[in-house]
Amino acid sequence: MQVIFSQRAFVSVLAETAEKIQTETGGIFLGYRNGESWYIVEAIDPGPKSTFQVAYFEYDTKYVNHLSLKIARLYNKPLELLGLWHRHPGSFDQFSGTDDGTNAQYASLNANGAISALVNIDPEFRLTVFHVTAPLSYRRVPYRVGDDLIPEQFRKLCDTQRLLDYTSAKTSSIWGTGKPQKPKYKYDVMLNEIIKNLDLIEITNNINEETLPDLTDEDIALILEQTEKDLEYFGECYMDFKVSLQEKVLQAQNQDNPRQILQFARVPGDTVCMFKFAERFYYYKSGLFKGIIEDAIESMKKIPKIFGFTRHFVIDKEFVECCLKKIKNN
Ligand SMILES: [Zn+2]
């Protein structure tokens, strides 16, 4: 495994260390896991209300939450919480008992574990990076720094057109367009938002339309029950979908653009539904689309959820609260 820092993330760690040179400090790593390569794209500081002492510090959780959300929304693919770092006095580059507790907590929150790094100034700046997995186990991993080492997809900032579309969708719903029949949100905007949220909920089994069984009455009842909320919501937004039952799927076709089709089916052998577009099936749950769209719109107003915190991603508010409680050294 290797850890790659963006220039910006690495400088953030250096800057934070330099600023609090007399005391402990630390921070949070945000980025992406991609197999054996983990990319730390952003590193955020622990906040103005953190407690800094020589061998102790505590995060300003409110600030960290706030800033994580602010920063994460700037990226095309929502950032994940990868881990944390903190400074140790002198040359002490192992974890204390309290650190073990914190690291174990972090590691248990993702199947692939977390990163925990230590900074020492002895007297040069020195960074030691560990991969932590649960049950608690440490492995020292090499790290490198450089934007050019990070694949473009992990550096890509949020699409400005997407933000502009949201802005205009939002504005027209505030000011009124004078044409109530006009769709409140663009279908393409909706799809973009959904696609952005998809990769972590894709059904990985080999499901394709040929092998799907025909719908039974029970399947149909389940699908109708599950999709009711979203189909109603599309109606509320004046998105005109024609809903029809096919042999294997329930199909919703956009009447403004008949090529745009959403299909719903039951996951074989399960009591949940899935939906299909772009030739792939994804797990579905009641109100999924409504939730995603509303979150996206809401996030343009208040920012809170675009991190994907609510649904598919590793981090949610509670998670951050719980794992950032305290870091102590003794
Ligand atoms: Zn420590």
Description:
The protein is of the alpha+beta class and 330 residues long. The protein has 2 domains: 2-155 and 313-328, Cytidine Deaminase, domain 2 (3-Layer(aba) Sandwich); 160-286, no CATH class. 32% of the residues lie in helices and 26% in strands. The protein has helices spanning 7-19, 61-72, 97-107, 160-175, 187-198, 217-236, 288-302, 317-323, and strands at 2-5, 26-34, 37-44, 51-53, 56-58, 80-87, 114-121, 125-133, 137-140, 143-145, 241-245, 250-254, 261-266, 273-277, 280-284, 327-328. The strands form 3 sheets. The protein has an 8-stranded mixed β-sheet. Strand 7 (114-121) and strand 8 form a beta hairpin. The model is unreliable at 168-181 and 301-330 (pLDDT under 50). The structure holds zinc ion. Zinc ion (ZN) binds next to loops. Zinc ion binds at residues 86, 88, 95-96, 99, 329.
